[in-house]
Amino acid sequence: MSNIIPPALVRRLGNLAGFDTVAFESVHEREGGVTSIRINPAKASKLDLASLDRVPWCDNGFYLPDRPIFTLDPLFHAGCYYVQEASSMFIAHAIKTLALDGQPVVALDLCAAPGGKSTLLNTYLHPDSLLIANEILKARATVLADNLVRWGQANTIVTNNDPSAFRHLPGYVDIMLVDAPCSGSGMFRKDHDAITEWSEAAVLLCSERQRRILADSLPALKEGGILLYSTCSYSVEENEEIADWLCENQGMEPLGIPINESWGIEQTLSDKHACPGYRFYPHKLRGEGFFLAAFRKKGPQPSFDRRKLKTEKNSMPKELESWIREFGAFTAFTVGSDLHILPKSREVDLRIVQDMLYLRNAGTRVGKLVRGELIPAHDFALSVEQSPGIPKLALDREQALEYLRKGNLSLMHDRNGWALATYEDVPLGWVKILPNRINNYYPKEWRIATL
Ligand SMILES: C[S@@+](CC[C@H](N)C(=O)[O-])C[C@H]1O[C@@H](n2cnc3c(N)ncnc32)[C@H](O)[C@@H]1O
């Protein structure tokens, strides 16, 4: 494995205003990178953040002094934070400064797995929004769904579709994030394989694919809707040239994002349409290579009439009342024998999306009703919508790790029935307390195997 930056890339970047070739090469010669996490504000945890440096462009982002073994932290499994590369957290700043959080929206994260930016959107958009997180690859869609389950919000639908499927939803989406598959040069410091795989031909192939993905899916963005386009590539062909192509061919107009000069982010302007682009270089800030540009769709974009769609009478089974915090705010529906909940205000959206797309998950899976009693699902253990009255079984760190290994728990307890196994007050999963033992319901496919 090599950590020598391809000379063809350095030559191209050397022509960009303000680019420092020596500093760029030398940061790649040093081993290691930066580790950062983004806190889930919906899960109150006792993480000690006071001594950590903050990511300047994201109020929930923090740098860690070194990279811990996250598998050994129960709060990681509980979805209290997401390990995310710091530059990508700039999307939080874009949402705030473009005022995309002012009202409920339908947001589509088109290339979403493993879910870093979806969990960010979930935190930063208006809480009554709907997030559709899509991933084209089936195996990656599963990881995406799991990460969103950990994040705990019910206003999310995970789909597993090719971008062209979104053509069937013309003018439906208010905000679209396309974090496109790219040549990956921005990850060279962390991923030396990406250096070996890089070539000028690969950059051109990625650039063509990025145009195809955008052209296929953009009909879903409504007139006046916002596109956030990002890559982890340094190549102009995948960044500023795509921005120009979006203005020329897709009816988009560029948007500027105010930045603080001290952050070290490089603002570029594309050649033809002077589209502002935001470049992150690891020699200029604490983060990996990243590019973001924002656009508004000028239109015209015809859209289907959602008023024609009526909601079905979807009542919530009364058996869920003692389990769900704001019982009246949700609608319930079944997937196979499982009950799911979704915010009531998003019932019509569920119908729209169900008709057109392949759904990998929708809302929060709460569990099965068996003879009038709920057998709770693991997903619901990680939900932020649980009623505070659900019994808890508090575990210390060793017990929590044993629980996450799906081991046996031998603890004193004074009640029988379902309870949430918690660590530092944060739920990890379900246990069923019986008179003579405690059954561990942590899903076997989630258990931590090697410690
Ligand atoms: C840069 S990654 C997304 C990372 C993700 N947004 C995050 O922050 O965690 C790009 C994603 O695009 C997907 N992808 C690959 N080819 C694609 C295509 N032709 N159309 C749509 N998505 C594609 C990949 O499977 C990958 O999950």
TrEMBL record:
Keywords: Cytoplasm, Methyltransferase, RNA-binding, S-adenosyl-L-methionine, Transferase. It holds the Pfam family Methyltr_RsmB-F. The keyword Cytoplasm applies. One of its GO terms (molecular function) is RNA methyltransferase activity. Residues 13-298 form the SAM-dependent MTase RsmB/NOP-type domain. S-adenosyl-L-methionine binds at residues 111-117, 135, 162, 179. One of its GO terms (biological process) is RNA methylation. The keyword Isomerase does not apply. SUPFAM superfamilies: S-adenosyl-L-methionine-dependent methyltransferases. Signal peptide: none annotated. The active site is at 232 (nucleophile). InterPro entries: Methyltr_RsmF_N, MeTrfase_RsmB-F_NOP2_cat, MeTrfase_RsmB-F_NOP2_dom, Nol1_Nop2_Fmu_2, RCMT, SAM-dependent_MTases_sf. Belongs to the class I-like SAM-binding methyltransferase superfamily. RsmB/NOP family. This is 16S rRNA C967 or C1407 C5-methylase, RsmB/RsmF family.
